[in-house]
Design goal:
The complex is a heterotrimer of chains A (about 300), B (about 375) and C (about 350). In chain A, about 75% of the residues lie in helices and about 0% in strands. With about 300 residues, chain A is an all-alpha fold. Chain A has two domains: about 30 residues; about 260 residues, MetI-like fold. By secondary structure, chain B is of the alpha/beta class. Chain B is about 35% helix and about 20% strand. In chain B, helix 7 packs parallel to helix 8 and helix 11 packs across helix 13. With about 350 residues, chain C is an alpha/beta fold. In chain C, the strands form two sheets. An eight-stranded mixed β-sheet of chain C has the order 6-7-8-3-9-10-12-11, with helices on both faces. A four-stranded antiparallel β-sheet of chain C has the order 2-1-4-5. Classes of the chains: A mainly alpha (about 300), B alpha/beta (about 375), C alpha/beta (about 350). Chains in contact: A-B, A-C, B-C. At the B-C interface, helix 8, helix 9 and helix 11 of B face helix 5, helix 6, helix 7, helix 9 and helix 10 of C. Chain C: Belongs to the ABC transporter superfamily. Chain C: One of its GO terms (molecular function) is ATP hydrolysis activity. Chain C: Keywords: ATP-binding, Nucleotide-binding, Transport. Chain C: This is ATP-binding cassette domain-containing protein.
């Protein structure tokens, strides 16, 4: 076939693709909740990435004190007030988002691929592979992540890194379970048998044929999980085994602010609201995606 | 432009100018476009057509089973003198419950898996058509002697549909029954309240040939015995021929042809009907047409004139301009095709043989049809 | 290529039992006898139709031949090679010679992959270099009368008939000798079915394909298959030249199947055997009736039928039938027998003498 017809093809490809995307976006955007959710997440990610540029007092994110300026109520200078050592709450929240998103990235970045891979293997092969992987999963699922993280961090050292390891070490189980259940039903689908008959290799069947059919529920679950991970992280920080002061963990800030309630309410309330907004964002987006893909996610 | 559909004498149900559209993300899909049909008292009428022709949507709009929106239903549906579309939901439920019954295609999903056949059918016998009984009345009836009477009636009906071992079946759950038995249970349920109109949606299609055969035999007996008027929906022309008095052939959301069964199969007029009949494999081994080129119309943007024109071997420019009239023949037949205008020579009208030969010639084009 | 005259596929006494696990420790408590001693062979370039209702085991036969199930017993020979329970290495080789088209055109295409990608899979497996694959896929699409636009479409954008064309194209990609067609048109409308059947006929001629055509629809088979085998509960009940099976169905089950088809013309109505509705339901293959498996539903059955299993024997040097009616030693047991049997019994011998008026049509 000549190059000319090949370019003709490519033009065709992009048109088809664009149409597909347009249709998907149209359906997605017909649900205002999910668009708001997506908006919140994008805004928070941008703010977190550019925190050093957009935060009014970037230096307040660390070990900064200004005792002449402690516990100031919201004002033009400090829109969300200052904390007990005079740091700007808004700036600290923006840097706090960085830590929260990093936690999400590490936990899901490790947990999802591992869980998906184990789920694929267990679901496709069945038998012993399934028994071993799924019983391990069941065991891990019986342990509440928060309690496990608490145990690990207090046994080792209460740092953010240890908290991340602890949560990530449990998180794969959710995805292994989800993927295994999908794959177990997909593997008997005729398209898998047809691929087998066409001579496709097992890796091809697993990653090219079956995996794409599990992506929608995984994506929905990842989005909903993100909110959950942030809450656990904040919870650990709140009880002092996550982000350590003076680092600006959102949970840490809520916890520190509680000492000055109810008079200086802004520290706890605003950092709490910051957590709430981001978690809501992920949940709204997740619900929207779930409706869009029309999938069931066991949680 | 629209002429009256050939009307049954003494009609029980008439549908006039039915239009049904659906809102969708891609726009408004005009699916049913001016359907007229009627079912006489004691008549068995079939709507036949292939996937996507609108036969189920027509049936669902008669029974108000469409969600509005996204569906929009316009027209007139008259049942024994009562206009149905203007009734309130509860009034409609009363008419439906007392006088119409529906037998669904899928016998498994139309029975509740958590109740025994006996419980479900006895409830129908006791409460069918009485949607707002009230709690006290509900319990009073459920635990009174009326319940036993209703149970007796159900048993009687199960015997009538030739259910094997009906006493035991009463205490069985739907999952314990075979497909054929579930279909029988549904037919019994439909007949419990002695409806005037039975609507049968692809009855028995999911069953095996020999079981399907039994169910059709049973249905024919019951129709006669109970003097039922029946609206059948089917994609199987053989079934239509076996059971019904008159057939409506649907294509692209319109009725393209109607005739008494015998006439329709002996002398099909519309090119679509002809093509469809020619495509059915013959037991006798006669040559079978190689199907109809092209695909069913896109409802978002249907052809302006005759909806079959893009696939019709006889189509002319005139066909694409406007919707053809329903040309009426004798005894309740009619065909929506301009070839049946008085001005067209008899010899210019297509025969099944001609249509078959048009469809047997290999097109050679890469239409990606069907 | 081996000799052209012999059969391409020979199945002998094939059995496939599925274990039923029960109890707490999942022991095998029972067997579903899906296929229970099936034998047939197909000559190169010919079509054998395997007909049956649900539970007859017709699809299991195909899946066992192609190695999707392991055979419990019996042998499958392909082109002279024993391929029963083939090794992986054998399977890899066989898959470029035997292919299958599934019943449901929708579920046999991956919804997340474009047609082009799905069709490239067999080419990739055969080692066709990436640069050539697209052209080859377009050739394949053209072979099934689809144009190159389909390359980049997803299955949901296609109609049922188009999807089935793609499935046929995928099966053809490896240039097979034998195609197992598992009810390839039963999910389609008649006008589309007619087109797929016409396509299959053309392809058979063009590529000298051999077909095993599995269906529940007898009327489809009449013009399509050279030989017809009627299955019931895991056994072939009647097998013979299609003409013969249709014109003079001998087994009561074949007769019932033929008579149950809702036909559309008077000629066909006259052609059908007398309407003999069957009693009751199809028994479960888990609990196969004793003696003749069909006796629970057979309009002719007698005590002998439930007591002893009939043998599969040739009648009038024509088709083979598994029925006591055609066995001389059981003749007195039956009060009533089908008219074909009367003929067979009154002047046993050559078939030519007993042509009925029905045969005149041919």
């Amino acid at each position: 076939m000549s190059t000319e017809s090949a370019t003709g093809f490519d033009r065709f490809v992009s048109e088809e693709r664009r149409e597909l995307w347009q249709r998907s976006w149209k359906r997605f955007s017909s649900r205002p909740m999910s668009v708001i959710g997506l908006g919140i997440i994008i805004a928070v990610i941008l703010l977190a990435v550019f925190a050093p540029l957009v935060a009014p007092y970037p230096e307040h994110a660390g070990k900064f004190t200004d005792f002449s300026n402690t516990l100031q109520p919201p004002s033009l200078e400090h829109p969300l007030g200052t904390d007990h050592v005079g740091r700007d709450v808004l700036s600290r929240i923006l840097f706090g988002y960085r830590l929260s998103l990093m936690l999400v990235g590490v936990v899901l970045g490790f947990g999802v691929p591992v869980g998906v891979l184990l789920g694929l293997v267990a679901g496709y092969y069945g038998g012993w592979a399934e028994t071993i992987i799924m019983r391990a999963t069941d065991t891990a699922l019986a342990l509440p992540p928060l309690v496990m993280a608490l145990a690990i961090t207090s046994a080792l050292e209460p740092t953010l890194t240890n908290a991340m390891i602890a949560i990530a070490a449990l998180w794969w189980t959710w995805h292994a379970r989800l993927v295994q259940s999908i794959v177990a039903s997909e593997r008997s689908e005729e398209y898998v048998q047809a691929a087998k008959l066409a001579g496709a290799s097992t890796p091809h069947i697993l990653f090219r044929e079956i995996l794409p059919n599990t992506l929608s529920p995984i994506l929905v679950k990842v989005t909903l999980d993100a909110g959950f991970v942030i809450l656990i992280g904040a919870g650990l920080s709140f009880i002092g085994v996550g982000v350590q002061p003076p680092q600006p963990g959102l949970g840490t800030m809520v916890s520190q602010g509680t000492s000055y309630l109810p008079d200086s309410w802004w520290v706890s309330v605003f950092s709490g609201l910051a957590i709430f907004t981001l978690v809501m964002g992920f949940n709204m987006l997740g619900d929207g995606l779930r409706d869009l893909f029309d999938v069931e996610v066991n949680r | 432009m629209k002429l009256d559909e050939p009307v049954a004498t003494d009609p029980l149900l008439t549908v006039k100018d039915l239009e049904v559209g659906f809102e969708s993300f891609d726009g408004f899909a005009e699916v049913i476009d001016g359907v007229n049909l009627s079912i006489g008292k004691g008549e068995v009428v079939t709507i036949a057509g292939e996937t996507g022709c609108g036969k189920s949507v027509t049936m669902k709009s008669i029974l108000r089973l469409l969600n509005q929106p996204p569906a929009r239903v316009n027209g007139e549906i008259t049942f024994d003198g009562t206009e149905l579309l203007s009734l309130s939901d509860s009034e409609f439920e009363r008419v439906k419950g007392q006088r119409m019954s529906l037998v669904f295609q899928d016998p498994m999903s139309s029975l509740n898996p958590t109740f025994t056949i006996g419980e479900q059918l006895t409830d129908t016998a006791q409460f069918g058509g009485d949607s707002d009984t009230g709690v006290i009345e509900f319990f009073r009836r459920k635990f009174s002697s009326e319940r036993d009477e209703a149970r007796e009636r159900v048993l009687e009906m199960l015997r009538e549909v030739q259910m094997p071992d009906p006493e035991n079946i009463m205490d069985s759950y739907p999952s314990q029954l075979s497909g054929g038995m579930r279909q029988r249970a549904l037919i019994a349920q439909a007949l419990l309240n002695e409806p005037d109109l039975l609507i049968a949606d692809e009855i028995g299609t999911a069953l095996d040939v020999t079981i399907h055969d039994q169910i059709l035999d049973l249905l024919k007996d019951l129709i006669e015995e109970h003097d039922l008027s029946v609206l059948m929906i089917t994609h199987n022309l053989g079934v239509a021929r076996q059971v019904s008095d008159r057939v409506y052939v649907m294509y692209g959301g319109r009725i393209v042809e109607t005739a008494p069964t015998e006439e329709l199969f002996e002398n099909p007029k519309h090119p679509y009907t002809q093509g469809l009949i020619a495509s059915i494999p013959r037991l006798t081994g006669d040559e079978m047409a190689e199907g109809i080129d092209g695909s069913i119309p896109e409802y978002l943007d249907p052809p302006r004139g005759c909806r079959f024109a893009p696939r019709c071997p006889y189509a002319t420019a005139e066909c694409e301009q406007g919707r053809p009239e329903m040309y009426q023949g004798t005894n309740q037949s009619g065909v929506e095709c301009i070839l049946y205008d008085e001005t067209v020579e008899l010899s210019d009208r297509p025969t099944v043989e001609e249509t078959r030969s048009h469809m047997t010639r290999r097109s050679g084009s890469l239409m990606g049809d069907d | 290529m081996t000799d052209m005259s012999g059969s391409l596929l020979a199945v002998d006494g094939l059995k496939k039992y599925f274990p039923v696990k029960g109890g707490i420790i999942k022991r095998t408590t029972d067997h579903v006898k899906a296929v229970d001693g099936v034998s047939f062979d197909i000559e190169r370039g010919q079509t054998l139709a395997l007909i049956g209702e649900s539970g007859s085991g017709k699809s299991t036969v195909a899946r066992t031949i192609i190695g999707l199930h392991r055979a419990t017993d019996g042998t499958v020979e392909f082109d002279g090679e024993d391929i029963t329970n083939a090794t992986d290495e054998q399977l890899a080789r066989l898959r470029s010679r035997i292919q299958m088209v599934f019943q449901d055109p929708t579920s046999s295409l991956n919804p997340r992959r474009t047609i082009g990608k799905s069709l490239a899979v067999p080419l990739k497996a055969r080692g066709v270099p990436k640069s050539e694959r697209r052209d080859r896929v377009i050739d394949l699409l053209e072979r099934v009368e689809l144009n190159d636009e389909y390359w980049n479409k997803y299955p949901h954008e296609l109609s049922g008939g188009q999807k089935q064309r793609v499935n046929i194209a995928r099966a053809l990609a490896v240039e097979p000798d034998l195609l197992l067609l598992d009810e390839p048109t039963s999910a389609l409308d008649v006008s589309v079915q007619a087109k797929i059947i016409a396509l299959l006929e053309d392809l058979q001629e063009e590529f000298d394909l051999t077909y095993l055509f599995i269906t529940h629809d007898l009327s489809l088979v009449r013009n399509f298959a050279d030989e017809t085998a009627v299955m019931y509960l895991g056994e072939i009940q009647e097998r013979g030249v299609t003409e013969e099976v249709f014109q003079r169905p001998r087994h009561p089950y074949s007769r019932a199947l033929l008579s149950a088809i809702p036909v559309t013309t008077e000629e066909e109505e006259a052609y059908k055997p007398r309407h003999e509705p069957l009693r009751g339901e199809i028994p479960s293959p888990r609990d196969v009736p004793s003696g003749c498996r069909f006796h629970t539903r057979c309009p002719y059955s007698t005590d002998a039928c439930s007591a002893e299993e009939p043998t599969f024997a040739t009648v009038d040097s024509g088709p083979s039938v598994r029925c006591h009616i055609y066995d001389e030693s059981y003749r007195d047991e039956f009060d009533e027998i089908p008219e074909v049997a009367v003929e067979a019994i009154t002047d046993g011998g050559g078939t030519a003498a007993k042509h009925t008026e029905r045969d005149v049509e041919q």
